[in-house]
Amino acid sequence: MPFQEPIASTAFPDETRVEIVPLEAMVAPAVRQGIAYWQRLRGDRPYPARDDIRVRDIAGLLKHMVVAKTLDGGADFALNIVGDEVCRCYRAPIIHRRMSEIFADLPNTVQRWLPIYRRVVLTGVPIAVVVAVGLEMPEINFTHAETVCLPLGPPGQTPDYIATFAQHTSRSGFSRI
Fold this sequence. Notes:
Layout: E1 17-21, H1 29-42, E2 65-71, E3 76-82, H2 84-87, E4 97-98, H3 99-102, H4 107-123, E5 127-132, E6 144-152, E7 161-169
Antiparallel strand pairs: 1-5, 2-3, 2-7, 3-4, 5-6, 6-7
């Protein structure tokens, strides 16, 4: 399901749909730009290192970006950098917190994203995700999203960070409040 402008309807799925899709299926501009930047940085390596990222190179994308540090081999993740647009998508603070801490405020969100983050760390392979938010997710301030989770790490080692780029939309006139 590609990224598209939301339709003018108040019909939402009862349950959130999370679909893993090929990287090439991403159409949201911020996500495509994030993927292109990551691919340039990695060159012929499986993934680039965290230190390869230069903020000045992606200044326009920072609001759509999250950088999470892998803790205890993927048992937990610390959200060190969270862009403004991403922060606005959740009804609880997420910046400078571990996923295990965020769980109390955003249990549905953490339950969905933790396995995806772990899979990126275990495989070293990016994962692209399309989300249609269901009515069971009152903790979220958006209705649709495209997100890509990209591994970062030293050559020949397990990824020690994940960079995500996400673009979120809401249907016109819809409020979860």
